[in-house]
């Protein structure tokens, strides 16, 4: 039975939601502002509050909240990469899609800071000592490139910003949204073991950032704990064809660290006549764009859109509460088994 509103009520309020959900008004406020998890509001309670909101047609009064807090309702998006990921095939595009979708949900507007691009192709937040990002209430950063000195200065200035991807700068507290890379490795090895694979190669990129280090460390620890045979080959994509024998030697499955390596391996295996998954099990540890050569292989469920959305919620929680929030780690789903196959005998 749907809750009934009083004929005199012009619009549902947080007090009404609290009464209907049998919770405190502060609990409703935390759900509305995205602070429920940080304040340990049980998930069942959050779900009940949101259900009541939907039933009575509650819409947060964003304008009133902004007026009280002297905010303008603009969320900035900045990257140190040379080009914004507006193309669908760009690796960071799905992060941007998640940011946009959550901004719509939260009733805020986005500002893409494109004017931070300098003549040499690099990007800078500060220009002649002025922080361009001040046009927005806060900003979301993403991309592999970063400028530690600028990020440290932003933190000193008290400007609210969050990073998509783990960032660690000594002496600087940077909230971030990241993925559980270690959990993704464990889930992947579960799938491979269930298919009978016990000899597994890890094909690693020569370009090492925090996600790559976390994946490889987790792989090494997991195969040791599980008693699996393993081997690590670190190679750039343009060497995969020449090093294919080394990659395949004595294993029944390969974990591929990046999309670039996966596409190179796809071509090399096709030339050699090695069938996936009939001859070799393969799992890609990142998400491939639809037009990638290896798009049909098994991939872990990497939550790029979810990370973008979570970054918006994290930033808004900071703006609402006025304190730096705790960083967020999202799960990485196990791969589907389409290119895992059943283990053959390792040669």
From TrEMBL:
<dbReference type="Pfam" id="PF13377">
    <property type="entry name" value="Peripla_BP_3"/>
</dbReference>
<dbReference type="InterPro" id="IPR028082">
    <property type="entry name" value="Peripla_BP_I"/>
</dbReference>
<feature type="domain" description="HTH lacI-type">
    <location>
        <begin position="12"/>
        <end position="69"/>
    </location>
</feature>
<dbReference type="InterPro" id="IPR010982">
    <property type="entry name" value="Lambda_DNA-bd_dom_sf"/>
</dbReference>
<dbReference type="GO" id="GO:0000976">
    <property type="term" value="F:transcription cis-regulatory region binding"/>
</dbReference>
<keyword id="KW-0238">DNA-binding</keyword>
<keyword id="KW-0804">Transcription</keyword>
<dbReference type="GO" id="GO:0003700">
    <property type="term" value="F:DNA-binding transcription factor activity"/>
</dbReference>
<keyword id="KW-0805">Transcription regulation</keyword>
<dbReference type="InterPro" id="IPR046335">
    <property type="entry name" value="LacI/GalR-like_sensor"/>
</dbReference>
<keyword id="KW-0678">Repressor</keyword>
<dbReference type="Pfam" id="PF00356">
    <property type="entry name" value="LacI"/>
</dbReference>
<protein>
    <submittedName>
        <fullName>LacI family transcriptional regulator</fullName>
    </submittedName>
</protein>
<dbReference type="InterPro" id="IPR000843">
    <property type="entry name" value="HTH_LacI"/>
</dbReference>
């Amino acid at each position: 039975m749907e809750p009934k509103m009083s004929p005199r009520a012009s619009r549902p309020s947080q007090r009404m939601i609290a009464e209907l959900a049998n919770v405190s008004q502060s609990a409703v406020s935390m759900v509305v502002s995205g602070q429920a998890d940080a304040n340990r509001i049980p998930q069942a309670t959050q779900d009940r509050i949101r259900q009541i909101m939907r039933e009575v047609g509650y819409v947060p009064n964003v304008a009133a909240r902004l007026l009280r807090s002297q905010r303008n309702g603009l969320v900035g998006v900045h990257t140190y990469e040379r080009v914004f990921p507006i193309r669908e095939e760009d690796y960071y595009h799905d992060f941007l899609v998640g940011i946009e979708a959550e901004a719509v949900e939260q009733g805020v507007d986005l500002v893409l800071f494109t004017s931070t691009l300098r003549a040499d192709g690099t990007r800078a937040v500060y220009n002649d000592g002025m922080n361009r990002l001040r046009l927005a209430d806060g900003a979301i950063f993403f991309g592999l490139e970063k400028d530690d000195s600028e990020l440290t200065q932003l933190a000193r200035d008290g400007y609210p910003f969050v990073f998509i991807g783990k960032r660690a700068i000594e002496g600087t507290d940077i909230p971030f949204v990241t993925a559980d890379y270690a959990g993704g490795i464990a889930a992947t090895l579960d799938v491979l073991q269930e298919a009978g694979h016990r000899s597994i190669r890890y094909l690693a990129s020569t370009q090492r950032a925090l996600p790559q280090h976390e994946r490889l460390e987790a792989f090494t620890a997991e195969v040791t704990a599980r008693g699996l045979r393993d081997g690590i080959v670190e190679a750039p994509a343009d060497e995969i064809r020449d090093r294919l024998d080394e990659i395949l030697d004595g294993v029944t499955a390969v974990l591929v660290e990046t999309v670039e390596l996966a596409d190179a391996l796809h071509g090399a295996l096709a030339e050699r006549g090695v069938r996936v998954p009939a001859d070799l099990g393969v799992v890609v540890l990142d998400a491939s764009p639809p037009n990638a050569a290896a798009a049909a292989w098994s991939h872990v469920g990497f939550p790029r859109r979810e990370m973008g959305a979570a970054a918006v919620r994290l930033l808004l929680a900071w703006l609402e509460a006025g304190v730096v929030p705790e960083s967020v780690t999202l799960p990485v789903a196990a791969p589907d088994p389409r290119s895992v196959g059943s283990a053959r005998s390792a040669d």
